[in-house]
Amino acid sequence: MAVPKLRIVILKPSKYSLDGYVERFRRGFMPNSTVPFLRSMTPASLDGVELQTIAIDEYVQTDLEYLKYLHQTDCPTLLALVGVQSHQFHRSLDLAAYAHANGVSHCVIGGPHPMTCDTSMFENSGVSFALAEAEMIWPAIIRDAIDGELKPAYGGEQRWERELDSPVVTPLSAQDLRRYVVPMMGVYPARGCPFTCNFCSVIKIAGRQIRSQGIETTMATLRATKAAGVHMVMFTSDNFNKYPDAAALMQQMIDEKIGLKFFVQCDTQIARQEELIELMGRAGCFQMFVGVESFNRKTLIAAHKAQNHPELYSEIVRLCRKHGFSTHFSNIIGFPNDTRATIQQHLRVLRELAPDVASFYILTPIPGTDQYDDFLAQGLITEKNLDRFDGTAPTWRHPNLGHGELQSLLFDCYREYYRAPHVLKATWANLRRNASYGMLPGFGFPLFSRYAAWKEMHPMAGGIWRVRRDSVEDYREMRKQRYGFDLVPLPRSLELSATDVELNLQAKLAI
Question: Does this chain's domain 5-161+475-483 share its CATH topology with 182-457?
Fold first, then answer.
């Protein structure tokens, strides 16, 4: 007697670019963490049913062969569209519609957008939504797919667990690792952010309580990752320096001589944590990403980012250089009180600080955030297409800057920052720190940024060597037939449950 089977396709959708094409790249910059994490959570069998798992990151799939997995064959198929942000929501709906048109009846969409935005308008359209962390709901979704019918939504009563019970992550295959600029993996040792920046959705999807997996789980993932041939790890936790076990993890990596170069994200308060910076350098950190966003203290306070003190930014650059790795400063242009003159002044100050890498984004009211709710209530949001809500395009009526001027300033910032003297200086400094990785942050990215600005495309879009295979026009009719619209109406934000509010309150009291 044949063993019953369920095919599970875990797919990270890409997005539609400004010209309507699906964003694909021959080599990716940043690996997706959710796809391998969810695949690692999925057992080989459940309740006597064999589970066949297929993992896909659409950003680095340069052909359309994977679409064959979105066809019903000899066994039921569950399509899980994961990590879906607002600018990827249309694409995820289109892939679900495509799967339905080809006989796949079980489709679920999860990630920041369904966790923070009202998706009830899609009930009875053949797609379900995951409103909570995977650990809380993934087994139930699989069981319901086995039983033959998914619920409209999972996890609405609570978004996140008090404690993490995460799996050891199975590394990507050798074939998948070749899809990135260097063989790399994302590792997520801690979740949550204690701060309340009104333009950020992190506390809406992961809460204010810093929750972490056990050090041994992270170390087991790193060992497996190294054995698989990975050269670089990205710790994708939003505030690595707020992770209580960060120093202990660094020390264990040093003691075991794990030998993996890694990238971290830290808040600006890292300027007061030189001991941790020193450990990071010895453990193999090659770059620290910091959301400095603005040099104007009043602007930061208005955005509820009062934890940033611009006078400390130079100390971050100094300490990272002292301990042998580079800095990447993220900058937002187009805050409500910005003008062309203030943005140009910001750029001058940034060039004086001279972090090795700088990236720039246009202030975007991300659906689900407090800022989005405020702008929507005030009638300031002018963009109706969710594809544009990715930090690279103007989406709201700015009091001082027109859409065209903001777009021009974005690319001007890249061109001006990455002048030849900065590129050469950063390259030399990075080569001195680490010959293997100096070319990537110090020379490759600055040159690519200048090229991208010339082409008027954002350098952080996802990778290099853009590939065109399909576009929104290939799916638009299916979207209309399945859901009854061309563009999704701008959503309302989901309120936190009483349980989630209490968890956030406990975190606030503990800070």
Answer: no
**Angle at 287 (CA atoms; ends 281, 292), nearest 5 degrees:** 115
Q: May I ask the CATH class of domain 182-457?
A: alpha beta
Residues 6+ apart with CB under 8 A from 107: 78, 79, 81, 96, 99, 100, 126, 127, 128, 150
CA 13 distance to own-chain centroid: 12
| Half-sphere exposure in the Cβ direction for 226 (13 Å, CA) | 13
Fold for 5-161+475-483, please state it. Rossmann fold (3.40.50)
The four Cα atoms 110, 111, 112, 115 give a dihedral, to 10 degrees, of 40
Q: In the chain, where are the structural domains located?
A: 5-161+475-483, 182-457
Rounded to two decimals, what is the model's pTM?
0.93
Q: Using N-to-C axis directions, what is the helix angle for 134-147 and 34-41, rounded to 10°? A: 60
Going across the sheet that includes 128-130, the strands are 45-46, 49-57, 5-12, 77-81, 106-110, 128-130, 153-154
In this structure, what DSSP letter does residue 180 have? B
Which residues in the chain show pLDDT less than 50? 435-439, 510
Write the single-letter amino acid at 28: G
- Alpha-helix residue ranges (DSSP H) falling in 305-384: 313-322, 340-353, 370-378
Rounded Cα distance between 170 and 487, Å, is 37
CA distances to 340, 433, 476 from 353, in Å:
20, 19, 47
DSSP string computed for 38-49: HHHHS-SEETTE
